[in-house]
Amino acid sequence: MPDIGQLTINTATLRKQWGLKDIIAGVAQMGIRGIAPWRDQVAAAGLKEVAAQIRDTGLAVSGYCRGGMFPAIDRTGRLAARDDNRRAVDEALTIGAECLVLVVGGLPKDGAQRIVSKDIAGAREMVRDGIGELLEYARPAGMKLAIEPLHPMYAADRACVNTMAHANDLCDELCPSGRDGLGIAVDIYHVWWDPQLKAQIERAGAKDRLYAYHICDWLVPTKDLLNDRGMMGDGVVDLPLVRSWMEASGYRGLHEVEIFSERWWAEDPRTVLATCIERHARVT
Ligand code: ZN
């Protein structure tokens, strides 16, 4: 059996095969260190029940997915986002998550979730203000917030923070040190291509801002922009190199496998977990 090491599983990786209770049990049975669940899965399984099951299994919770989606076209929408993010912080505390992952949102939407603005600069201001406001709620409660920069192909609809540099700039503006509760989730899928990746990981590490490390691989060709992430070792990312940058910058946390993939969702979930363990030990 390969060494499990720092492996943790983002529960989206198995979402089509198993409900959250089965995922937690399956991950624990394989001896994996942790999980990172999604809010909709927790809601379906019941927050208290999930928290109790996680405690019983002794699994770490490497992150909670997700908060964010701050921009909205009117005040009603922004207040709804604020309230929903506060609930996400409360849930993250209940399940003992290491951090709440923020997918910050793209162009402003209306109440029917239609994009109704082309003002991306304005969207970025709403993101900054939204994170700053949420930090005032999360910091005293003891929940860390991790900004996840997303690949630029998602700038319109999911996240208008697309580079590590932008995430670091936001952290500099809102929170002088990562010890004060605002940091970054580094997801290989989104940032592997960035010529500044090494320098920006070092910049984040110097301020204790490296809160999470999400791994998968970039397939060539990528057939679907959302649901065709690769298993580690099947794509073009130099995973050991990026891991070495993370570790040289002080990151000692878990390595979270997060794979949205129709190909892997069609597999037996135990095969997926066994493959994650083997690939994590061998190619990351
Ligand atoms: Zn991620």
The spatial strand order of the largest sheet comes to: 3-2-1-9-8-7-6-5-4
Give the distinct bound molecules: zinc ion
Sheet with most strands: 9 strands, parallel
Strand segment count: 9
Number of domains: 1
Mean pLDDT: 97
Number of helices: 11
Q: Which spans of ≥5 residues are poorly predicted at pLDDT below 50?
A: none
Q: CATH superfamily name?
A: Divalent-metal-dependent TIM barrel enzymes
Helix-strand makeup class = alpha/beta
Fraction of residues in H or I helices: 40-55%
- The topology string of helices and strands comes to EHEHHEEHEHEHEHHEHEHH
CATH topology: TIM Barrel
Give the class-level CATH name.
Alpha Beta
The CA-CA distance between the termini, in Å, is: 16 Å
* Morphology: globular
Radius of gyration over C-alpha positions, nearest whole angstrom? 18 Å
- For the record, the CATH architecture stands as Alpha-Beta Barrel
Strand content: 5-15%
